[in-house]
Write a structure and sequence with these properties.
single chain; 538 residues; alpha+beta; elongated
Length: 538
């Protein structure tokens, strides 16, 4: 922290020296105003600039070993006041800064109290505050303070009012408040006092120039300054007409801008560059030296390995996507082969690292998938299906050879793959064969009672125009399909209370919905959903 403030003081000193020797006597009043304010701010910013500089590593000679006992160890004795001295110094600096901040706040509060107690009158962009205690005209922010007796008797010259109005229009009070804040923070910098004096003097130059430009009479204004040459009354935070009434203001009114004024202002650029180079913070770091590593020795592949790589790349090339579509096995094998090639072999094949490769997802075969039927079995199935189909009736089959139809149905359900089943029409299993000689016909199970409703089932009969009903319960839902005699079919969801009401009204048992299917994570198979259909015909 101490080094930082020392850099701030040095920067502010060099910038003020540049102003004092080159810019102070030039009639660049607006430029000088912002130069002084900017120099104060830049003095705090330049030491905060950080540069990282990388340097080459320097070879350090080998250490010289010294026998033990030849050099006596040096033990530093700590001083008792070293530990608390920096803390005490910082505490004193902060206490003085706090006092200066409180003094500044008190002065601003006093001015606000004065404004609130006195009467004021509008005057262009400003307000004139009349007070019996103020003997000298001065201004703060947009208020001009005048003696009420002198104002009523007309003893205040118009040029004085123009001068104070220029201070208000150019907002000089904000510059003074800024310098006061910096002075309270960095009071130990003696150059801040010089900056404050130069800023206030430059304010008077600007106000004098504004009055002369407005009135056009320089000599009368100079006589007004000479008339009050002995008046010197300091008013804190205020811009006063009688501030620094010296020959500097009279000389500035007669001075013209020199030919070298702009050239002097341009010299500020190399000055700032030099200050940044001298007072900025620099962090040095050594350049990382890469240690020598022996070349990696790769064992040469055989000619068969190179040929295998070329075969994979040519086989998996896709012209449509202009890339390579590979499964996981081909991708892993090709990557391994290319990574173990020598540079000479790699130049003779496709660059694996730059190729456009698409890795296809792994296809998990469903356990329900069958091995597949042969071509002869597929032809036999097509012949049986074609010979058993009833012409002109969609989905109608007539069994002539029960054994062949049964074999075809088993082939469709138990051996064909999904693709094969999709390429041929599905043929339903045949009914049981008629009994031959010496055989008795299979006894069919007793038919279920006709669920048509009625008195014996404690339900109402179905409507007369209904030909039949079909009740299905897939998953969690229950659906009823009603076929009317006119040929229309209506399907409705009766899950829940509707199913209970239907069962109670017509006396027809509704099958309960099946639970959701379970998923086997090991085989990635979804078990088949079992649905019981109840077909009711009238």
């Amino acid at each position: 922290m101490i080094l930082y403030f020392l850099k701030v003081i040095a920067c502010s000193g060099l910038l003020y020296a540049f102003y004092f020797f080159l810019l102070q006597k030039e009639k660049m009043l607006v430029f000088n105003r912002f130069y002084l304010l900017g120099a104060v701010a830049v003095s705090f910013l330049i030491p905060l600039i950080l540069f990282r500089i990388t340097i080459e590593a320097i070879e350090v000679p080998a250490e010289v070993s010294v026998p033990l006992g030849t050099v006596a160890p040096v033990v530093a004795k700590p001083l008792f006041f070293i530990d608390w001295l920096p803390g005490a110094a910082y505490t004193i600096v902060l206490l003085i800064s706090l006092v200066l901040f409180l003094r500044l706040a008190y002065r601003v509060w006093r001015l606000k109290q004065k404004i609130g107690k006195q009467e004021y009158r509008p005057f262009y962009e400003a307000r004139i505050v009349l007070s019996a205690h103020d003997r000298l005209p001065h201004s703060f922010l947009n208020y001009i303070f005048l003696n009420s007796e002198q104002f009523e008797q007309g003893e205040i010259d118009t040029a004085v009012l123009e001068h104070e109005l220029a201070h208000v229009r150019q907002k000089h009070s904000w510059d003074i408040l800024f310098i006061e804040l910096v002075q309270a923070l960095c009071w130990f910098n003696p150059l801040i006092w010089l900056y404050k004096r130069s800023v206030q003097l430059n304010h008077e130059f600007l106000a004098d120039q504004a009055v002369v430009k407005r009135t056009g009479n320089t000599q009368s204004y100079q006589r007004l300054l000479l008339k009050n040459v002995y008046v010197n009354n300091f008013i804190p935070l205020a811009s006063s007409f009688y501030f620094f009434t010296t020959k500097k203001r009279l000389l500035m009114l007669q001075r013209n801008q020199s030919k070298f004024a702009v050239l002097k202002a341009l010299l500020l650029i190399p000055l700032l560059g030099a200050l940044i180079g001298i007072f900025s913070e620099k962090v040095y770091s050594q350049k990382e030296v890469k240690q020598f590593s022996p070349p990696k020795i790769v064992k040469d592949l055989t000619e068969n390995d190179i040929l295998e790589y070329k075969t994979i790349m040519s086989r998996d090339y896709n012209k449509a996507s202009k890339g390579y579509k590979m499964d996981n096995d081909d991708y892993s094998r090709a990557k391994y082969l290319y990574g173990h090639m020598t540079s000479e072999d790699a130049r003779t094949v496709v660059n694996f690292n730059r190729a456009k490769i698409f890795v296809l997802p792994t296809v998990v075969r469903d356990v329900r998938e069958h091995s597949g039927a042969t071509a002869e079995e597929m032809e036999e199935y097509k012949k049986v299906e074609s010979s058993s189909r009833v012409a002109g009736k969609q989905g109608g089959y007539q069994v002539t050879d029960w054994a062949a139809v049964q074999q075809a149905a088993d082939l469709y359900s138990n051996k064909m793959t999904k693709e094969q089943r999709a390429s041929v029409p599905k043929m339903p299993p045949p009914p049981p064969p008629a009994p031959g000689r010496g055989q008795s016909a299979p006894v069919p199970p007793p038919p279920p009672p006709p669920p048509t409703g009625g008195a014996d089932m404690k339900g109402e009969p179905l409507p007369a125009d209904v030909e039949g009903l079909k009740i299905t319960a897939p998953g969690h839902k229950v659906y009823i399909t009603v076929k009317y005699k006119n040929g229309s079919i209506i399907k409705e969801d009766i899950t829940g209370s509707k199913a209970q009401a239907f069962e109670k009204k017509y006396g027809i048992k509704i099958p309960s919905p099946q639970p959701p299917p379970l998923k086997d994570e090991n085989t990635r198979m979804t078990p088949p959903r079992i649905v019981k259909d109840t077909v009711i015909k009238k």
